[in-house]
Write a structure and sequence with these properties.
Elements lengths: L5 H16 L1 H13 L4 H15 L15 H17 L6 H17 L3 H10 L10 H6 L1 H17 L9 H14 L3
Helix pairs in contact: 1-9, 2-3, 2-8, 3-4, 4-5, 4-6
């Protein structure tokens, strides 16, 4: 069932705005996870989520006022959820926090959520800026370059305006529904 009730959307406006406010810090913290020790599956999910940060063709174009970085915030939460669900020892604070927040995202997206999960799983094999997740994790120089780009994003990220109106979330769901593979 697709959530379209504007009154129900009100529950998501403040959290999603908060997610946009923390996006730069979240990316930086996930970078530390990728740069540290850990189970390969956990690191791969975190790196895959961060690949989306650098991807030029987002699910929601970055230039769209109000919505441009929501998909990035969503992808990081789903990637963290996958890392926690599939990895032993995925107890880094950032992974746990983002994974818990993904539960709200699942409720918001309803039937679209599994499509977003499939998209995030696919980031592990996608090539972004000439790098795959496997290459990032197996090559120290590539990993360093990749993490440098992510940290540059985190440092220069400017929190976008986010209209706290139900129609904003209606537009967001429409974008995701149109862009996510069936």
């Amino acid at each position: 069932m697709v959530t379209t009730d504007p009154a129900r959307f009100a529950d998501y406006l403040d959290p999603f705005s908060s997610w946009l406010a923390s996006l730069g810090a979240d990316a930086a913290e996930l970078s530390a996870v990728v740069d540290g020790p850990g189970e390969a599956r956990v690191l791969a999910h975190a790196a895959g989520g961060l690949q989306h940060v650098l991807k030029s063709l987002d699910l929601v174009p970055a230039g769209i006022e109000d919505l441009g970085f929501c998909d990035v915030a969503f992808v990081l939460r789903v990637a963290a959820s996958l890392a926690v669900d599939e990895g032993e020892g995925a107890d880094a604070g950032i992974l746990v926090r983002l994974s818990q927040e993904a539960k709200m995202l699942s409720d918001f997206l309803d039937d679209e959520y599994p499509r977003l999960v499939a998209y995030v799983r696919g980031l592990r094999t996608s090539i972004v800026r000439g790098r795959t997740v496997d290459a990032i994790l197996s090559d120290a120089a590539l990993r360093s370059s990749f993490l440098g780009e992510v940290l540059s994003f985190a440092e220069t990220y400017s929190v976008p305006a986010f209209a706290r109106e139900a129609r904003t979330l209606t537009k967001l769901k429409a974008f995701l529904s149109a862009k996510l593979a069936p």
